[in-house]
């Protein structure tokens, strides 16, 4: 039960921080650190919507929407890392 309360508190904190608009991107930086995103990733409120190399269609991701790291624009996920889109073969897009 304590883990559930901690999870809910963390979710409320992250959601609140996500809604704050800052000009210097400090909220996004704090979220990247919290979720341990790499320098090629950003935090998204719906990480399950991210496309990956070899995935031809977008998934029905809204049913499983969770905060997490996704690859930045111009990058695409292959296995667990973000690679430049140019390295993903055209037939895999």
From TrEMBL:
Stretches that traverse the bilayer: none
Keyword Signal in record: yes
InterPro entries: Ser_inhib-like_sf, TIL_dom
Stretch forming the signal peptide: 1-25
Entry keyword Chaperone: no
Entry keyword set: Signal
Annotated ranges, domain TIL: 37-88
Protein name (database record): TIL domain-containing protein
Native species: Drosophila melanogaster
Lineage: Eukaryota, Metazoa, Ecdysozoa, Arthropoda, Hexapoda
